[in-house]
């Protein structure tokens, strides 16, 4: 902006710019000198409190504008990536859901009870996916039971209603929820992430449970190289 100039002409310009109420950062940007040098040149030229407030307000507006620009760029990028995902995934077939469900249960399912198939999660969409998957194994929605884990400071009736409506399962299929005492200073973070508690959805059926566990054993064998040993399942 100012072309090639000597250190002395830069000092003169810095003084003139300071007289106009410019900040050290603004002057530094134009003259390409360090703030320590400006502090030496302009040490007797402090800005008024009113001008400092004006500069601070301008800075906050600039920061907010920068944030909004970044937000819009990120939103555009996310939309583009999602569009690619829609094309890549396409429509999920029953066969694909059938296989995916075993991976889902492998990661999130309860495997300790030999007669119970239970899936636990806080995300209603994931629980719905489980319901659609287990229907492929012959389990009717009317056979499913729901057991909620909640905190004592939550609106429990509202949470039961939420899950009943989301999953389209009558409240008569819900067991009495497990209520954990809220801990001061901690339940806020918990509720922030899991505002409707944890949903445990299950069916008691030995054959269904064994089919799932054996299918997972096959997946472990194929992708994990772990040979199936029926003795461990008895």
Quick description:
The chain is an alpha+beta fold. The chain has helices at residues 7-19, 24-31, 35-41, 49-89, 94-108, 124-135, 156-167, 187-193, 206-224, and strands spanning 109-110, 116-121, 145-151, 178-180, 198-204.
Radius of gyration: 31 Å
Q: Shape, please?
A: elongated
Secondary-structure element order, as H and E?
A: HHHHHEEHEHEHEH
The major beta sheet can be summarized as:
5 strands, mixed
Distance between the termini: 82 Å
Number of helices: 9
Q: Which structural category fits the helices and strands? A: alpha+beta
Low-confidence stretches: none
What's the average pLDDT?
87
Strand content: 5-15%
Number of strands: 5
Share in helix: 55-70%
Biggest sheet: strand arrangement: 1-2-5-3-4
Q: How is the secondary structure organized here?
A:
Elements: H1 7-19, H2 24-31, H3 35-41, H4 49-89, H5 94-108, E1 109-110, E2 116-121, H6 124-135, E3 145-151, H7 156-167, E4 178-180, H8 187-193, E5 198-204, H9 206-224
Parallel strand pairs: 3-4
Antiparallel strand pairs: 1-2, 2-5, 3-5
Features:
alpha+beta, about 230 residues, 5 strands, about 10% strand, about 55% helix
What can you tell me about this protein's structure?
The chain is of the alpha+beta class and 234 residues long. It has a domain of 140 residues. It is 57% helix and 11% strand. A five-stranded mixed β-sheet has the order 1-2-5-3-4. Strand 1 and strand 2 form a beta hairpin. The longest helix has 41 residues. The chain is elongated, with a radius of gyration of 31 Å. The model has no long low-confidence stretch (mean pLDDT 87).
């Amino acid at each position: 902006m100012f072309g090639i100039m000597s250190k002395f002409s830069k000092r003169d310009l810095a003084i003139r710019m300071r007289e106009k109420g410019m900040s050290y950062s603004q002057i530094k940007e134009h003259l390409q000198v360090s703030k320590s040098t400006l502090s030496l040149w302009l040490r007797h030229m402090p800005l008024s409190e009113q001008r400092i407030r004006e500069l601070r307000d301008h800075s906050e507006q600039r920061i907010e504008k920068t944030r909004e620009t970044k937000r819009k760029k990120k939103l555009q990028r996310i939309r583009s990536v999602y569009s690619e995902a829609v094309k890549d995934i396409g429509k999920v077939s029953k066969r694909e859901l059938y296989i995916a469900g075993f991976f889902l249960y492998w990661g999130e399912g309860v495997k300790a009870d030999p007669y119970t198939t239970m899936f636990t999660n806080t995300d209603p969409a994931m629980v719905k996916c489980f319901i659609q998957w287990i229907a492929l194994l012959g389990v009717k929605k009317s056979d499913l039971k729901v057991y909620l884990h909640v905190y004592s400071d939550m609106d429990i009736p509202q949470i039961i209603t939420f899950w009943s409506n989301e999953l389209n399962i009558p409240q008569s299929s819900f067991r009495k929820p497990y209520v954990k005492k809220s801990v001061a200073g901690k339940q806020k973070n918990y509720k922030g992430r899991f505002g409707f508690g944890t949903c445990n959805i299950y069916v008691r059926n030995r054959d269904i449970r064994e089919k799932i566990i054996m299918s997972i054993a096959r997946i472990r064998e194929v992708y994990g190289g772990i040979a199936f040993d029926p003795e461990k399942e008895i």
